[in-house]
Each structure stands twice: as structure tokens, then as C-alpha cells.
Write a structure and sequence with these properties.
This protein has about 130 residues and is mostly beta strands. Helix content is about 0%, strand content about 50%. The chain has no helices and eleven strands. Strands 2, 4, 5, 6, 9, 10 and 11 form a seven-stranded mixed β-sheet that branches. The N and C termini lie far apart (about 40 Å).
């Protein structure tokens, strides 16, 4: 089993930056896919970004490309989501997800392909 814990959420002003962390533990594999998703009140969960081992292949939703950066520090067993130029519409609960395999490129946006999920961290963008 894999356990995920998100941290770093909170309040940020429009245009500000915030960095989320996702610490992993348990039976993780060197072959993996780490994803970030978000869910706003009353809306469906949506894909934000993903990174795949082992060549650090990254993928982003069009709405965040150029502003968000996903990364993974294998030595610290921690994934990150750097969020710049925050907008009010970015307000949501952000969740990290984990799969002990290198998910096929065409499926990384599909939450059903991830076996493990954190409970999420709330991010509010407001003045």
C-alpha cells in the first residue's frame, strides 16, 4: 500500500505563488506516475499535472501550462506542484495521486488510472 500526504495549501493573493508537497510512503515503486488533480466546490475533479518516471516526463492541463510546474524529489519521496500567477478560478482542493507504474501517455489525465490518493489540501486564491 502507498500512503500520500499533501501539504502547503492555504490562502494566496491573485498573482501570487504557492508550492504544494506530496509525501509518499509505503510500498512505492521506482516505476511510477505522480499526478495532481483539483476539485472546486460543486464541480467535477479535473486533471492538473502529472510526472512519469524515469525520464521525468511531465504533462499539464492547458489551463495551467506555463504557470504550474510539477516535480519529484526521489531522495525525499516527495512530489511538488509549484503554482505561479495564481487566479481566483484556481481555488480548489488539490489532491495528489499515485500509481506504481508508468502510465501510458494517453491515460495520465484519467484519474481512474491511479490507485492511491491523498485526502487533499485546500487552496484559496483571494485578496
Amino acid at each position: 500500500q502507498v500512503h500520500l500526504v499533501e501539504s502547503g495549501g492555504g490562502l494566496v493573493q491573485p498573482g501570487g505563488s504557492l508550492k504544494l508537497s506530496c509525501t509518499t510512503s509505503g510500498r512505492t515503486s521506482s516505476s511510477y506516475t505522480l499526478g495532481w488533480f483539483r476539485q472546486a466546490p460543486g464541480k467535477e475533479r479535473e486533471f492538473v499535472a502529472a510526472i512519469r518516471c524515469c525520464g521525468s516526463s511531465t504533462h499539464y492541463a492547458d489551463s495551467v501550462k506555463g504557470r504550474f510546474t510539477i516535480s519529484r524529489d526521489n531522495a525525499k519521496n516527495t512530489g511538488y506542484l509549484q503554482m505561479n500567477s495564481r487566479k481566483p478560478e484556481n481555488t480548489a482542493v488539490y489532491l495528489c495521486a499515485w500509481e506504481n507504474s508508468r502510465i501510458i501517455l494517453s491515460s495520465v489525465r484519467n484519474g481512474e488510472r491511479y490507485d492511491y490518493w491523498g485526502e487533499g489540501t485546500r487552496v484559496t486564491v483571494a485578496s
